[in-house]
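Exercise 7.
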Amino acid sequence: MTTIQVHDTQGVRVLKFNRPDKRNAIDLAMYRQLTEYLIQGDADNGIHAFLLCGSHDCFTSGNDVAEFLQHPDLGPEHPAVRFLYCLTELKKPLVAAVSGVAVGIGTTLLLHCDLVYADETARFKMPFVDLALVPEAGASLLLPRLVGYQKAAELLLLGETFDATVASHYGLVNRVCSATELYEFALNQTCAIAAKSPLAVQQTKALMRVGKQSLQQQMQLELSYFADRLQSPQAREIFLKFLQR
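Solution. The predicted structure, written as tokens, is:
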């Protein structure tokens, strides 16, 4: 089974999480595939935008816990780390369609998307502190910029679940759709972008995405803390209990 499905249509590269038996938890192979497909698409003149989605009932439940325990060294060649930095380097727009749960990286990667659409079933959660970890993907910088410090502190320190309506209020989601219209609407919006002048679109994105160097520095700081916390007794105990369920 292909855990990352990919197909190109109307100048759009559609990437879909496809690991239903693990609630689309992202393992290292999936990170490698995502990075490869994004880099290839960014260099392909026939691809003008990306659409990332999951299944109808689950975007992604986050990282594959077992693999992260086995590969705790978060150096620059770690597949998850390469994916995160790839997000910061994308020249072409990235759109997400979120249905069902979006946990951990499933929420923080949305901060790197240019447009995000969700349906009424979408549920977002960043439970890093609950797992004795710290945020990743630059969330400790991007989230306060988006929602303000106090609200970001509430979301990251308490790690509570919030729905698509709340996510829309925060500015994390552009529009809440019905479950039946989400994918088609998100694809149509992505195709509309892909039909415009590629250079104008890419330059507009570059003008809005300022401060890449500071973002990457913050991501590196997060990763150093994350790697340290990942190997802590508290985190390992929580993860082992999770795996034994």
